[in-house]
Specification:
The protein is an alpha+beta fold. The protein has one domain (about 15-150): 2-Layer Sandwich (Fructose-1,6-Bisphosphatase, Chain A, domain 1), CATH 3.30.540. It is built from 2 helices and 4 strands. The protein has helices at about 15-65, 90-95, and strands at about 95-105, 110-115, 125-130, 135-140. The chain is rod-shaped. The chain starts with 13 loop residues before the first helix and ends in a 13-residue tail after the last strand.
């Protein structure tokens, strides 16, 4: 009597596919928080660039007018930067930060970027820059800003 051999089967078994899906799931679980942190770092860098550009615009205004007053929308001293400044706020920044002039007088100013939407849980929190040009980070949970913020 002759034994019929089954033809050689190609492909993956269900167990092999399940192991592959499990490995991909574990990698995704580990990688996703790092990906989110990377995106937040990029958004933060964009906000720093926007604040620096706005600071230069304000200095130019001061050079021409000897005051920082009246640069917020509506001619006020605090609030959203007005169209008096030549620079328009970048949508890629305003999607993740609210940029405001938090204080302005004749010889000083304070700009502030407050995180919002997916950026709101950023470890660095809000960012401020004043007339002296140094960045100040205020984490939303309070305390000192992590070293990762001081780039």
């Amino acid at each position: 009597m002759m034994i019929n051999k089954l033809p050689y089967q190609r492909g993956f078994s269900l167990i092999e596919l399940m192991i592959a899906v499990a490995i991909i799931g574990v990698l995704g679980f580990v990688a996703y928080p790092q990906y989110q942190a990377f995106l937040q770092q990029g958004n933060r860098a964009d906000a720093l660039e926007q604040l620096t550009s706005l600071e230069l615009e304000m200095r130019q205004f001061y050079f021409e007018n000897t005051t920082y007053k009246g640069l917020a929308s509506g001619g006020g001293d605090t609030g959203t930067p007005s169209s008096t400044l030549l620079m328009e706020l970048d949508d890629s920044v305003t999607d993740f930060y609210t940029i405001t002039i938090s204080a302005a007088d004749k010889h000083s100013f304070q700009l502030k970027a407050v995180p919002k939407s997916s950026q709101s849980n950023d470890i660095c929190g809000s960012i401020e820059i004043g007339v002296n040009g140094t960045f100040i980070y205020t984490p939303s949970g309070g305390g000192a800003a992590p070293d990762a913020c001081k780039q």
